[in-house]
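Let us practice reading a record.
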Amino acid sequence: MRVKTEEQIAVEEAWYETEKVWLVHKDGFSLGSQLKSEELSLPEGKVRVKLDHDGAILDVDEDDVEKANAPSCDRLEDLASLVYLNESSVLHTLRQRYVASLLHTYAGPSLLVLSPRGAPAVYSEKVMHMFKGCRREDMAPHIYAVAQTAYRAMLMSRQDQSVILLGSSGSGKTTSCQHLVQYLATIAGTSGNKVFSVEKWQALYSLLEAFGNSPTIMNGNATRFSQILSLDFDQAGQVASASIQTMLLEKLRVARRPAGEATFNVFYYLLACGDGTLRTELHLNHLAENNVFGIVPLAKPEEKQKAAQQFSKLQTAMKVLGISADEQKACWLILAAIYHLGAAGATKEAAEAGRKQFARHEWAQKAAYLLGCSLEELSSAIFKHQHKGGTLQRSTSFRQGPEESGLGDGTGPKLSALECLEGMASGLYSELFTLLVSLVNRALKSSQHSLCSMMIVDTPGFQNPEQGGSARGASFEELCHNYAQDRLQRLFHQRTFVQELERYKEENIELAFDDLEPAVDDSVAAVDQASHQSLVRSLARTDEARGLLWLLEEEALVPGATEDALLERLFSYYGPREGDKKGQSPLLRSSKPHHFLLGHSHGTNWVEYNVAGWLSYTKQNPATQNAPRLLQDSQKKIISSLFLGRAGSATVLSGSIAGLEGGSQLALRRATSMRKTFTTGMAAVKKKSLCIQIKLQVDALIDTVKKSKLHFVHCFLPVAEGWGGEPRSASSRRVSSSSELDLPSGDHCEAGLLQLDVPLLRAQLRGSRLLDAMRMYRQGYPDHMVFSEFRRRFDVLAPHLTKKHGRNYIVVDERRAVEELLESLDLEKSSCCLGLSRVFFRAGTLARLEEQRDEQTSRNLTLFQAACRGYLARQHFKKKKIQDLAIRCVQKNIKKNKGVKDWAWWKLFTTVRPLIEVQLSEEQIRNKDEEIQQLRNKLEKVEKERNELRLNNDRLETRISELTSELTDERNTGESASQLLDAEAAERLRAEKEMKELQTQYDALKKQMEVMEMEVMEARLIRAAEINGEVDDDDTVLPCLPHTPPGGEWRLKYERAMREVDFTKKRLQQEFEDKLEVEQQSKRQLERRLGDLQADGDESQRVLQQLKKKCQRLTGELQDTKLHLEGQQVRNHELEKKQRRFDSELSQAHEEAQREKLQREKLQREKDTLLAEAFSLKQQLEEKDMDIAGFTQKVVSLEAELQDISSQESKDEASLAKVKKQLRDLEAKVKDQEEELDEQAGTIQMLEQAKLRLEMEMERMRQTHSKEVESRDEEVEEARQSCQKKLKQMEVQLEEEYEDKQKVLREKRELESKLTTLSDQVSRRDLESEKRLRKDLKRTKALLADAQIMLDHLKNNAPSKREIAQLKNQLEESEFTCAAAVKARKAMEVEIEDLHLQIDDIAKAKTALEEQLSRLQREKNEIQSRLEEDQEDMNELMKKHKAAVAQASRDLAQMNDLQAQLEEANKEKQELQEKLQALQSQVEFLEQSMVDKSLVSRQEAKIRELETRLEFERTQVKRLESLASRLKENMEKLTEERDQRTAAENREKEQNKRLQRQLRDTKEEMGELARKEAEASRKKHELEMDLESLEAANQSLQADLKLAFKRIGDLQAAIEDEMESDENEDLITSLQDMVTKYQKRKNKPEGDSDVDSELEDRVDGVKSWLSKNKGPSKAASDDGSLKSSSPTSYWKSLAPDRSDDEHDPLDSTSRPQYSHNYLSDSDTEAKPTETNA
């Protein structure tokens, strides 16, 4: 942070005290000072402002005044850092930066770019390298900064990144995209394999610019397609592969375009080609005078020269991208063929013939030659539209429309010849563009592994012809591009506002954003809103609102649809309503026909569209479909090979998105995501619709980038012609900002600002909603991290917490740990906030923490480097010491070797010692070889197992992927089908509802018609009465006479009725007029009240809007002040921290000074004491000097005495010399021994170093072994995981089987419940039938008794016909009751059969469950056997472990013994050293006493022997120590294996327990099933017993019936005796009817019992009796008794003995009832048979 000077602080204070404000007006804003309102008397809502540039004082509204920032904020890099954030301040900062050539500005998390005029130097390679490796906080705003931020975030988080460029056409989006990708290619491009480099990117950009760009009224080189450039990065951050996907290509621009615009650039490049050979091959030497496509060569020579250079550059770019010469030639052939088709033209259709053909066949012939086909084939493909075997279905055009089914028989859309020609040209160009994209992806793809990707989205900007100075309406293609921009703007809003607010809500972060207005996406909804019935293609028009694209598709299906109807429907859904204000509706009507206005960018950019021809455009052009077939069937191999190779590939998605190839995994994933967008839900049905395909393409684009982290770049137009907020005339389209602001000429600061168009910038700023985004960025917490991630990342800033808890501390409560960390960091409370799972920070706080972390990390690294360097220096010094010691040791050994090399014992020792070592080394080598072989075998086994597991894993993964893909396809198909079914059901319901409504209308009309008919009939009757009255003259004369004819009465009635009707009409009319007048008065009063209320409402609405604006403004200012206060608090907090740090440092300095003062005093005291000591020592020295002088004198005297003695002992000089020589020899030997001791010490040190090296080697081997063990453990873990997966699969199978079992149990319960209900019903029916039969029996008995009484009465009196009829009816009722009982029995039999079937099904289910139980039992046995095997393995491991423990204990004991031996050896060494010292003393003594040399040599040999023994013991100790360490490692490894086996055993036991529980549950359920089955069998047995009882009852009833028939015979005999001949005829006829009914019953197949045979005999008797009694009643005579006696005798012969009747419990009077009942039963059974027939 830059420290401000006192002068700057004073200037800012003075600025804020003067209350500088911006006065906003329609042309911009002006700086002024707000005067104090306390001293002024102004109306409410008004303020007084004094302008700075001219001093004018104005009274303006409060809403037109915005606070101004200090001059220090004029060129801030981040607009969110402004103190007062408002439109004028933002625009002023942008203007100041633009004047200073600072084109880029941060706007919170986004970047804002003003389109430069010219080529500024801020995009050089030198600037590019300045941003490499930097953080966002350290970089100035630049497009390179966005690329570096995204690249750094991708490397740190391994998450996909996307950069989306937004803005109007001509605002520099494509240029920014070019610089962005160039930066990535420079810092992350591949240098070795050249997958993606700067050269390739420049070549790619040149190719796309030539084939996809064209000049428009708003941009001289506008992009006419949308693209997604994807860069895939590997682990090292280098570009591994790249791909590009294109969509929304304006292919129709080749043949038709708005007035004043040109076609694609490549046509002009090709026509300006300087290669004569190529021009000759393409037939371009002679160009046509006119071209229906408007493709004409450039006129100016400099333009031609530039186009020729561009063509050469294009060829070079294609070579760089690996496009061969043949492929380039194929492209030129297609482009030249399109040009020649335009030159050929098409004839206008004649009224009588209507034939379609070329206008100039010679140019058509050239086109056919270039395409490799004949003229007839080309003409047929363009004009005749014939399918050939379905090859047209491979079309790559926008869609195959709803008329595709009618193309085969020539019933397609009616198109003109020119439209067919245009369709062929657009289809050819679309195929060519798709081919080029495929070739580009072929050059950029790679098989390298990619980790994450970065996507750059570039789309055409907002198109507004009025902004470019054109009066035409926008086209359909411009609507598509504007719609795509609106969708991207909505994505920006969702990511910036909606997701942030949802995150705050989820984390319980309470923030108030009252000043943020909700976003309105009415413009998007007006274009693409779908209805719930969108899946059904129907001509019905519902009232449900839908967008323009859906309306276009529906209107295209309706015959005779017009653009006017389309607009009316659109305005009915989205047009302005009554009472709506201007701007509330996304649609407005235009004064021009077929035009409408649509408000884009939240209503800030109103574009006028012309819908003329849109319906014909939405219909599929068959010539466009024929284009790919024409190219695939070409005779030129260079063309057909290219397009036939693409025919079966998936490079184009439904003819919409090109470039779905890709060699990397990420490219395939993106292509799959896009295909899913086109194959799920509504897209699966509508993907062939041109209009809906526009929405699907944009959906695919949005879905692709939504899965990544987004970075937005807003590109603004600084100046635009014809823009001023409202339409202007052509003369006023270029107005500078100077006249708008009315600035003085002397203001040099403002004079340079004439380049910006402030209203244009204001509109773009409002449309992008950047101000709201920056407010939310300032007020909210834009940076957030998960608790655990924050703690792991920033705990380095709190080392005392790490020391407190330790490195291996396991955090239980992350939130509490983060709170402690934040407390230790001493952050301002308002700068951070804790959520439920995340910690949130204000803008800039996390960057400061990152900076502190980097500083702390650099300090830690510095300390670590110092420690490492110190350690290395110490190791180097130690190494040098060892080398010095080794050199000395070598020197000594060489000297000793020279001394002992001729010694016999030494020769023997050197000969024997290697033999011992060889034997020992051979044994060690053999042991090592055996260990190595064992390890190799184990390694091979493990490798084999791992390979098998890998193969199994790969196979299972492939199977899973196949099943997943199949499941996805099935799911997609099911979803599509379900949606279709739902839509169809909705359509059916709607049709049924309409049918019901129509039926009700029809019924009402029918009733009305009947009423009308009745009225007509009444009128006719009245008219007839009138006519009769006119004919009869006496009706009027004598109306009251009794002889008056009936017509006169009707006349009088009619006149009276007419008078009443007239009177009623007059009365009703008067009442109606009175009521009408009252209602009109009340209506006028209500209208007045309504007008007043509306005026009040409008006034209150206006006041509310003003208050709302004022509230928003005050809220914004309050938030700005609050944020400024928080910034000041943060700054104060930092200053307090610095003050505390300074105070602590000051106190430390004071303490240090005090300590230093104390040290100085102490040193002064020590100095005084030392001076005193020096003085005393000086005195002692003088005394010593005096003593030395005395001693010198004594020495001189002693020397004199010695001379005297030497003169006396001259004779003993020879002996003295000999002694001196011996003394010197002894001294030399002592020195040699000392040297030997030093050499032994060096040898010991070398051995210690060798031991250290061996220990390091052992440690390294231990580490490698541990790594191998870990890898093996991982492999074992993988195998265990695979086994666990299998176990989980088995568990899933068991669960499924358990669910099946539960399902079977439920079905069984349902069947049992049904069985119980049926049994209850059967029992109830049996009881009811029994009761009914008993009632019938009682009634029959009663009736028989009545019949007996009647017979007795007949005997007394003659029987009547009425009584006989009553008896007959009673008999029929009895027969009907019997038939009902028989039917009930049959129904019960059927139900019992159903119950038998259900019981069989239950038995089958039981067997299936038993099989399942047995299978589970087998699996349990297998698992138990596996557990037993694992237990055996565990036991073996335990045995090995015990053996290893025993071995280790033995080794430990051996080590203890060796340790004891070592101690003994040390003791012996000490003893030897003592002996050596003793010997040395003896040597000295012997030297003095001149002992023999042999004794000394023997002692020396003994010493060397002891030393060799000591060295051998040391080697043995080292070997045993290494063996002990190896055994310890083996023991640890076995312990780990034991623990793993124990854990595995526990898991297996748990699995076994779970399986046992499941098995136990299964057994319990099986037992429950068995119990329920036994219950069902018991109920079945009870039902069978009930059935047997019913059968017995039925048999008893049959026996009673037989008895009744017997008695009927007697009753008939009695009746026959009493009847007369006249009455016998009635009885005979009734009996004949009964016989016929019985015959009908006999024809039925049920009558096969003995009772029926017996009844047949009796009926035959009745027949014979009837045949005898046939004859006229007149033939009755006295011999009638004889005639009637024969049937009586017959009945008597059939009947049993009459004596039986006396013993029968039933009275004889009840006999006729049974007979009659039986016959009526046959009758009742015959009736349903006839009905069924």
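A brief commentary: The chain has a mean pLDDT of 75.
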